[in-house]
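Sample entry (312 residues):
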Amino acid sequence: MQKIMTISYLKYFNFLYSIAGTLVDIIPKLSIKIYNKALSIYLKKGLNIDFIGILLDIAINLDVLGRKDEAVLIYKKAIEINPLEARAYYGMAVVYDDIKNYDKAIFLYKRAIEIDPEYAEAYFFLANVLDESGKKEEAAEYYESAVQIEPNHFWAYNNLAAVYEELGRYDKALTSIRRGLGLEPCNYRALFNAGVIMNKLGYSNKAIEYYEKSITQYCKYSFAYLNLSIIYQEEKDYDKAVDIITMGIKNCPEASFLYYNRACFLVHLEEFEQAVQDLSKAVDLSEELERYMKGDKELDPLRETEQYKKRF
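Predicted structure, serialized as tokens:
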């Protein structure tokens, strides 16, 4: 009879656990309540299941709900039970990463990797934190490790390409972004990054092609319009540059730098009245641009106009 009851409770536990997992991203508060109910059954009935797994799921839910201090306490409890529980160190690292306590996050990600050298996501997010902290060389090393463990990790290739581009290692950046695009050929961020790299390598026509593809995939990414327009500006094709920026403004009307750059292009076309209107819009959206424009020599021809003097 006891065995039958245990099986019944185990089925009930599994049912609750499954429901809680389903609800974690939909109704996290309800998910926590169901996890706690499942935990109560586990504790009362002494079921033979992964207790640490339950704790980790509850901690993840608490983190999703913004109850980060409580999540950390649960992760620490899991580590008390098993000091070699890499998932708990990783989970804590994610919490500290989210609140930008990068030193703690780096320590905890590295501890997770020390315990489990095949933990691809720990390598990936450690690389992210190192990148955010300005430690580009070390970030590249960990992104490389992530793709060695998980060769189909698209975001690791994409981010690695961006890091190599910032380090000026354009050949390596190109290799990485090509591998990423091999996995997700229509990803707008990867297409954008490919455009950046191609332009740095001096292949402006290929850069244009990649920026245009990026915009086709996602028309709300304002930096694609900016970078594409700047290529035409450098070729002194200001009309084309204005056309590109205008399309960007239509799709991204809150992007202050698009108005600012269109103003600069319009100055070259001597369309001063429209240029002042764009500058006005840009500084309304960004106080930082108002400070920047005062030292921008590209706007010097505009400063003597009545429209500029009246507005600024």
